[in-house]
């Protein structure tokens, strides 16, 4: 898409650092330079205000990546794009059948109403819960990682969705201020929410997580 739009050497393309490295790699393959902007902490997608803050005369495009079943605010990003003459591209997630999405939403609602000690995701309109991502607040210790180990020890599968933001990776390392990206990388944990989960398995998730709630301190 970038090449078809004429993006190339000398151009800058604004992308998220929270997520997979492939987007930044695609930018470099065109000869352009990836520029990282911060995310909205509710959606984990590019924040339009943060995007506008990094626009330069070399900026040619923005790549908005939809994340975990939540969509980026494309309307606001297009307003920024029109204001600065930028192409706004989207990278979506794989579509799931409607019945599967409905079952994920049902399980997400169950967890929303019962989990304590973690911050449950902002549902928002149209959330498909590709991943059910909670936050384990940090207070100077690697609470999320300790929490994940303890939950796994109780038989609950979980995963860190983004272990290293792209702007910390070799080859893309940048001295930029991305506080929401950094915080999300340190605090987020994906819990099971797939349609195959049984009621007993859902109860096990809640029991395992809530038993650890007292280990956590609120984030300030």
Automatic annotation (TrEMBL):
UniProt keyword Electron transport, yes or no = no
Residue intervals passing through the bilayer? none
Arranged from A to Z, the UniProt key words for this protein are:
Aminotransferase, Transferase
Biological processes, Gene Ontology terms: polysaccharide biosynthetic process
The record's listing under InterPro entries reads:
DegT/StrS_aminotransferase, PyrdxlP-dep_Trfase, PyrdxlP-dep_Trfase_major, PyrdxlP-dep_Trfase_small
Q: Please, which domain of life does this record's source organism belong to? A: Bacteria
Record-level Gene Ontology MF annotations? pyridoxal phosphate binding; transaminase activity
Q: In its UniProt entry, what is this protein called?
A: DegT/DnrJ/EryC1/StrS family aminotransferase
> Which one Pfam family would you cite for this protein?
DegT_DnrJ_EryC1
Species classification: Bacteria, Bacillati, Actinomycetota, Actinomycetes, Kitasatosporales
């Amino acid at each position: 898409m970038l090449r078809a739009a004429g993006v190339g050497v000398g151009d800058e393309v604004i992308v998220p650092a929270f997520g997979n490295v492939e987007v930044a790699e695609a930018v470099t393959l065109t000869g352009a330079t990836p520029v990282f902007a911060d995310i909205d902490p509710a959606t984990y997608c590019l924040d339009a205000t943060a995007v506008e803050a990094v626009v330069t005369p070399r900026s040619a495009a923005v790549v908005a990546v939809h994340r975990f079943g939540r969509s980026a605010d494309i309307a606001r990003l297009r307003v920024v794009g029109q204001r600065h003459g930028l192409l706004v591209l989207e990278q979506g997630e794989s579509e799931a059948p409607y019945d599967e999405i409905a079952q994920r939403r049902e399980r997400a609602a169950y967890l929303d109403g019962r989990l304590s000690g973690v911050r449950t995701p902002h549902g928002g309109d149209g959330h498909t819960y590709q991943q059910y991502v909670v936050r384990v607040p940090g207070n100077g210790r690697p609470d999320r990682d300790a929490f994940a180990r303890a939950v796994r020890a109780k038989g609950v599968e979980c995963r860190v969705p983004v272990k290293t933001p792209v702007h910390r990776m070799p080859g893309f390392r940048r001295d930029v201020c991305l506080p929401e990206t950094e915080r999300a990388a340190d605090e987020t944990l994906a819990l099971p929410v797939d349609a195959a989960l049984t009621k007993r398995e859902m109860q096990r998730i809640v029991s395992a997580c809530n038993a650890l709630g007292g280990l956590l301190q609120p984030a300030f």
